[in-house]
Amino acid sequence: MLSICLFISICSTATAQNSFKIKGSVLDANTLKPIEGANITGNNLFAVSSSTGEFIIKNNKKQTSSITISHVGYASETVTINLKNNANKHIKVLLKESSTVLNEVAVTGKTKRRKAKESPIVTHTVSKEFLDKNRENSLMQTLSKIPGVSTINIGSGQSKPVIRGLGFNRVAVVQNGIKHEAQQWGNDHGLEIDQQGIENIQIIKGPASLLFGSDAIAGVVNIQPNKIPLQNSFNGDLNILGESNNDLLGVSVGLTSRKEKWFYRTRLTYRDYGDYKVPTSKINYENYIFELHKNNLRNTAGKEANASVSIGYVADNIKTETLFSNVNAKNGFFANAHGLEVRTSKIDYDTSNRDIDLPYHKVNHFRVSNNTTVNTGEHILHFDLGFQNNKREEHSEPIPHGYMPKPPNTKERVFTKNTYTLNARDAFNIHNKHHMVMGVNMELQNNTIGGWGFLIPEYNRFTVGAFGYDQFKINSNLHLLAGARYDYGIIDTKAYYDWFPSTVKNNDGSTSQEYLQRSKNKSLNFNNLSASVGLSYINNNTTYKINLGKSFRMPLANELASDGVNYHMYRFEKGNLDLKPEVAYQLDLDINHTKKQFSLGISPFINLFENYIYLNPTSNYFETLQIYEYTQSKVFRFGGEFNASTTVIKNVTLSASAEYVYSRQTSGLKKDFTLPFSPPLSGLFSASYQFKDFSFFKRPLISVDYKITAAQEEIVPPEQTTDGYNVLHMSFTSKMNIFKNSAPVDLRLKLNNVFNTKYYNHTSFYRLIDVPEAGRNISVSLTIPFK
């Protein structure tokens, strides 16, 4: 499909070479400044002026053409052009401001910003501008600047989301209406999502089970569809990225085109990086000293190749888009972190910083989804259909453990997940006071395993949920939202026996050889009722929100039926078939005051878990590895976020944010302890200065971010405490008019960890074995748009 789309684009370009081209610019008649977004129309001709006021119309078959240039607030101008005599002429159109007296108009539409204010749910909208400015090595690292959002980092190229101290399957990641389903249960499994080309993300803080079902008990990262392209448009962008710390080189190209009703989008991304560097020459883990060659965290190199293409159709009452995407990655595991192989391995890990030696993992995530919206006038029907195939292979040296003979190959574990998704909902209004939404979500999973190492069994999982909510407009500034949801789920685990016999002691003192059973055929079902009620009040520039919700999460297969060694974590993990679904209650408050030059926001929350599931270390051992068992306890949590920003003087913007989470287990074996991976108190102070244009630099901006993080002394053994730290980041962004008659190029320079500070992130995966965060890194990014 991708080839077809590229072929169409090439053919269109070839055809344009035999046709006339109209080039020009649209300016304000009084100020002579460029006008962006002006519509240029003619007979089968269409274009929109860029930020520099320039436009190009290709594939014009006529020698003489008449075009009309229009923009809101300006009087329209019609120009007739003889292209035969002026083939290379650049026309200049001056629009005069105009004022128009309109009769009374009833406005029924609402902006996204207004809708967000009216909803009592605590959300944060992430714009394309924020994503482009703050882009890091992974999507979640890019979002970690948002108060209340952090990451569990796994090396330089992978991370998983944490919202208010909760992660793994407690945070749902949704892309174009479909929940991303991979191996997110694992500590070392990141997100298989290409962050290039994403334009808009909604972060929901707090329980969102009402809308998204199980796995949204802590919040949602909702990656929303990109906006529909304009009619008769063709544009794209080329992004080139280079980084110094891990010698990364990345390139991404995207194309978007639309005729009248049909459109397509496509993107290709490739990244290649070496071992990343840390600001230390040695690591001390349990009295083992690991020397690092040239500060490289050996065997953390990786490669990533992603492709996506979508085809869509839009008309007055229907919009549909079908997406095909594939994410493929191969990443090395830090060689000293996987069973401590470096002490016995014959591999020379320091030969090259770009080699991907054992141990490593390969993952491929294929996805097909369709989003369709039908507007019948009184009802808006929305349907999501999706299929995902996620295959992950973990490779390590074939070393025997216990009674296991030497394995026949390097495939230690293989996880394959097929997920089928169907969402349907109906939105309608009653008496212009009630906005009703009713819907159903269904998901079917088939999970298989392979390899010579066992951790979780094969299993099937089916979930179905029905929900409904009403957003009642008490008056224009006061809104009440109330809803309920019922979910039912089934999980079937499959029996598994070791592929090798073990020596077992019998009751009579004799021994025998048996193939040990690690899991059994078991069918479990779960059901629960979720509910939410909230109020939103808008008072001029201040919005007040309060929301109370009950949510739940089904236990996962690893929590129910794991029974094997996890060498990434140096422990034996054992599931518990008696686990109950997690049930949580949360009260959210949100106050946001926004003016033109000042904003202030605070979002406190209180959270209570009836039966939080966690992995508890025991006093028992399997061979030399400590046994951890899944259990449950009551948990009390509270915390929140604070943010403020101001423009003190022209071109200078200052902002500050802080986040804090307190967690305490109030029952169970770890009573009075906190939760694993609990983020400490932290604050972020930012300052930016907008320079005047100079040379070919347009809107140059320099920014400084200073992060202060307190020590984390609230831990769950065997976790270790983490010292506090301060770290400084700097960036420079600008648009550059390099190519004549083309849109400006976006330049981004970033200097992370300016002083090469050695510090530990408490939510980092490698922090558990004394690995600090990455050292100083310089990144250069160029985004070249084209039309």
Domain count: the total is 2
* Amount of beta strand: over 45%
Rounded Rg: 28 Å
What is the CATH fold-level name of the largest domain?
A: Maltoporin, Chain A
Shape: globular
Give the overall average pLDDT. 87
Proportion of residues in helical segments: under 10%
CATH class of the largest domain: Mainly Beta
Please identify, by name, the CATH architecture of the largest domain: Beta Barrel
Total of helices:
6
Low-pLDDT stretches: 1-17, 100-107
Largest sheet: 22 strands, antiparallel, barrel
Give a topology summary:
Blueprint: H1 2-16, E1 20-28, E2 39-42, E3 45-48, E4 54-60, E5 64-70, E6 77-82, E7 90-95, H2 112-118, E8 123-126, H3 128-134, H4 139-143, E9 149-154, E10 158-163, E11 166-167, E12 171-175, E13 178-179, E14 201-205, H5 209-212, E15 219-223, E16 233-243, E17 248-258, E18 262-273, E19 282-285, E20 288-291, E21 302-314, E22 318-332, E23 360-375, E24 379-395, E25 411-430, E26 434-450, E27 459-475, E28 478-493, E29 496-497, E30 502-505, E31 511-514, E32 517-519, E33 522-539, E34 542-553, H6 557-561, E35 563-566, E36 571-574, E37 582-594, E38 598-622, E39 625-649, E40 652-665, E41 682-690, E42 697-709, E43 725-736, E44 745-752, E45 777-786
Parallel strand pairs: 1-7, 12-15, 36-39
Antiparallel strand pairs: 1-4, 2-3, 2-5, 5-6, 8-14, 9-10, 10-11, 12-13, 14-15, 16-17, 16-45, 17-18, 18-21, 19-20, 21-22, 22-23, 23-24, 24-25, 25-26, 26-27, 27-28, 28-33, 29-32, 30-31, 33-34, 34-37, 35-36, 37-38, 38-39, 39-40, 40-41, 41-42, 42-43, 43-44, 44-45
